[in-house]
Amino acid sequence: MTATPASVDTAIIGAGNIGIAVAYYLVVRHGVKDIVLIEAGDPMALTSAQSGENYRNWWPHPVMTEFTDASIDLMQDIARATGNRIHMTRRGYALATRRADPSPLIDDLHRGYGAGAGSRIRVHGPRAPSAAYRPAVSADWQAAPDGVDVLLDPALIRASFPTFAPGIAAVLHIRRAGDLSGQQLGQFMLETIRAAGGRLVRARVAAIDGRAPFLLQLETPDGGATLRAARLVNAAGPFAGAVAAMLGERIAVECVFQQKLAFEDRHAAIPRGMPFAIDLDGQEIPWTEDERAILAAEPDTAALLAPMPGGIHCRSDGGDLGTWIKLGWAINRAPGDPAGAPPLDPHFPDIVLRAASRLHPALGAYLGRLPRNARHYGGYYTMTPENWPLIGPMRTPGAFMAAALSGFGTMAACASGALCAAWAAGARLPGYAPALSMARYHDQPLMAELAALDSKGVL
Q: Pairing relation of β-strands 35-39 and 54-56?
């Protein structure tokens, strides 16, 4: 732990993967070395530690596609430079549906990939050639194809994804997608920051004098301290709204707790080489009559009898030689208080396992028989109403933010850090920068366009 200095050029509140990435790009791109990362606990120990550690360039709008494409480029740069220390793989995302007419999903692909969609989307149907499709490619991201393969041929779907349930009518295989170690990515960045002279201070920010140079009142393990900073970055994750309030500002974010389940796949239900698989279709969970009666008797559980949204996801964890799998389902829509205890729902493991078994019938072997070392955990999605991040200047001169990264913080950390660092350094900005800042709320055509989208890309 570093002693609190009297003053610093840039103070970054939050040492999750986003705050660390801002510091990293300030160091490596702009030569700013007088940096302090302020974190009450250990780096990457809160929301970052609950990440699914996935990435994709599949979004319902081209701005977010361009943004995450830029982040993937930066992750690949780090993978190359470190001998793939970050364990980046690229088997893709397989989005499955039973819809007889998947044309709305294909329309979403064209909308999300924008002007380049025509060259990136390949359709394989009963009357279209499918020989070019290779489902089982190397996990090496450098060998994997780009774009999207849309599988509409039932025989091709069965051959490519034999463990999927019968009745899947279409699979959208997003190829520039996979997984990585967010912890290794953050650790590499921290090492670079420290080598350049950046510091980590263990402290909680209690108050901020909202004028540059900012005066931060800190609570450290050794007592109170103050820190003066010429620039301030709000990268406080689920506490970004509280930090903004210290500056007399309000940002339109809410925190929604989402849960995951990880367990050892002792029955080898999920092939190790399968892409990150997502069931897009809504469903009603197949409870028994006795279970339905029990659930209906309690207001908190009666909602589990209603039709549920799609988006159940599953992937193998731990690489080709690993034995664990992860399941997730972002079904919660109610905001919560990130300062409280994690509101883990004891019903969630059973709920997500039953739902995932609809796409992966072999998972049914674990119903009522989860391994004892199964891990049920969760973290907060800090979200704007449109599920786009807020990266750029705050209203207070000299203050910047990189916040509201929802469930995509790991995959967008590099681009978020690079973008916020460019704003703070007064450097050249990418074309998507205004749309990801608070300036978008003054762009009425863009906001109307986002309001009309069927999907916000929440997973």
A: unpaired
What pLDDT does 47 receive? 87
Beta bridge partners of 326: 262, 315
The residue segments making up the domain with residue 122 are 93-178+255-383
* CATH number, residue 358: 3.30.9.10
CA distance 303 to 305: 5
CB distance 22 to 234 below 8 Å: no
Give me the DSSP letters along 290-319.
Answer: HHHHHHHTSHHHHGGGS-B-S-EEEEEES-
Phi, psi dihedral angles at 28 (to 5 degrees) = -80, -25
- E-strand stretches of 40-169: 54-56, 93-97, 121-124, 148-151
Residue 365: Cβ within 10 Å count: 14
End residue of a domain, out of 358, 383, 408: 383
Residue 70 lies in a domain: no
Strands (E) in 143-221, as ranges, are 148-151, 170-174, 177-179, 199-202, 204-209, 214-220
Q: Identify how many contiguous H helices and E strands the chain contains and give both numbers.
A: 12, 19
Question: How far is Cα 437 from Cα 435, in angstroms, rounded to an integer?
Answer: 6
Count up the domains in the chain and report the number: 2
Cα–Cα distance measured from residue 58 to residue 64, given in angstroms and rounded to the nearest whole number:
8
Do the domain assignments include residue 248? yes
Pairing mode, strands 35-39 and 199-202: parallel
Task: Let me know: does 398 contact 212? Beta carbons within 8 Å.
Answer: yes
Q: Are residues 98 and 49 in the same domain?
A: no
Distance CA 236, CA 215 (A): 17
For Cα atoms 308, 305, 299, give the angle at the middle one, nearest 5 degrees.
115
- DSSP state string for 130-170: -TT--SS--SBTTTS--SEEEE--HHHHHHH-TTSPTT--E
Residue 77 lies in a domain: no
Question: What is the tens place of the pLDDT at every residue in 76-90?
Answer: 999 999 999 999 999
DSSP class of residue 165 equals P
The encoded tokens of residue 38 equal 């302020």
pTM of the model: 0.95
pLDDT band at 130 (very low <50, low <70, confident <90, very high): low
